[in-house]
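Quick start: read one record
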Amino acid sequence: MNVSYRTNFILRMCIPLFLFISYFFISYSKLTLIIAILATIQLIIFGLDINRKGNWTKVNLQHDQRTRGNALFAGNLTFWFTILVLLIGTLLIQNSIISIAYPKFIGFLILISLILRWIIRDYLNNQEETED
């Protein structure tokens, strides 16, 4: 959805807030705290970039054909990564090589997959912007 940069920034603020709330009230996991800090750093960099370019009131056109293709590629790559890690993780947990519960393993994998998808998508989109 093409929204203003300000609205996009406010929507992106929900992710670190949710992760911090999850850490302090639900999970107390160090991985959740690390992911929350990384998401906060990414949000601050995004906000500084918007402020530097003066785009707060402009519309963020982020869904053209190129960016949709990059998001699809990142999603496919993350999907296969998730399937592979689930298979390997299940084998390791069943053979008692690693001691982690299945729900925790799946939760961590979902968070890692989302972050990996965002990193790949943003890298591909930024790479095309610098080539233009």
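The chain has a mean pLDDT of 85.
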